Amino acid sequence: MPNKSPILTPDLIQILKIFLGTALGIVLVFSLFDGYRADNTKKGRSFQVADADRLFFLNLRSIHYDREVRLEAGMEIYRHGKRSESDLVPSFFPSLLLHSKQKEAYLFFELGRAEYPIQIQVSLGDRVIQIPFDLGGNTAHKVLGEQLWPLLQQDASFSLLLRDKELPLWQTESEKEVLKTVLTDYFRLLNQPQP
Fold first, then answer.
1. What residue ranges in the chain does DSSP mark as E strands?
2. Measured between alpha carbons, how far is 177 from 83 in angstroms, rounded to an integer?
3. What is the per-residue pLDDT across 147-168, written as a single tens digit (0 to 9) for each?
4. Rounded-to-integer distance, Cα 28 and Cα 177, Å
5. From CA 144, how far away is CA 183, in angstroms rounded?
6. Which residues of the chain, if any, have pLDDT below 50?
7. What three-state secondary structure class fits 17?
8. How many whole angstroms separate alpha carbon 22 and alpha carbon 34?
9. CB of 107 within 8 A of CB of 142?
10. DSSP of 52-104
């Protein structure tokens, strides 16, 4: 009877070590980068709110806001309690919209006693910047908030241009603080750094 050769020869063991080591290394690398998977949902994540950030806002920050529930839209509107409202002068303050089913948050600048389109004129030293704004979608309001944040940090003065009429906007320190607070809370809700 002929002698059977061993199945696991030293050469075969060496080849198995190379292939199994490589396969294990690839699995380990892919498991470390699991959070960077492709998003095939066709849905933008720029308005997504994590549960922890939502709870932080609802438990700690929402006490500074007036809350309005819109059942038909499945949303809650939060307007800062110290925003100024006048029956005569147009107002332009942001509100936070929380969509509970989609777990999203939106920034919405509410224009009172005037109509769109508007322009916000920013005076920064000897420079004058005009920001045109029309009632756009969620992205337009978010972009406006991102544009205003650095200007607020530079202590700019603002005015509202309506049909060639210039009206003061966010003139007092308390009005600017309300604006800063709402923008800070919004970027905190989205877990994004402030621009």
1. 65-70, 75-80, 91-99, 104-112, 118-124, 127-133, 157-162, 165-169
2. 9
3. 999 999 998 999 999 887 899 9
4. 48
5. 10
6. none
7. helix
8. 18
9. yes
10. HHHHHIIIIIGGGEEEEEETTTTEEEEEETT----SSS-EEEEEEEEETTTTE
194 CB neighbour count, 10 Å cutoff = 14
CB burial string 97-110: b at 16+ within 10 A, e below: bbbeeeebbbbbbe
**CA 130 – CA 122 distance, rounded (Å):** 6
Q: Which residues pair with 120 in a beta bridge?
A: 131, 160
pLDDT in the model for residue 37: 59
Distance CA 101, CA 82 (A): 28
- Cα 83 to Cα 167: distance, rounded to the nearest angstrom: 17
User: 């549960």: which residue's tokens?
Assistant: 51
Phi, psi of 181, rounded to the nearest 5 degrees:
-65, -45
Q: What confidence score (pLDDT) does residue 95 get?
A: 96
Q: For position 152, what pLDDT does the model report?
A: 93
The Cα–Cα gap between 65 and 87 comes to 20
Q: What pLDDT is attached to residue 8?
A: 79
The average confidence (pLDDT) of the chain is 89
The alpha carbon torsion through 39, 40, 46, 51 (nearest 10 deg) reads: -80
Q: What's the pLDDT at 42?
A: 52
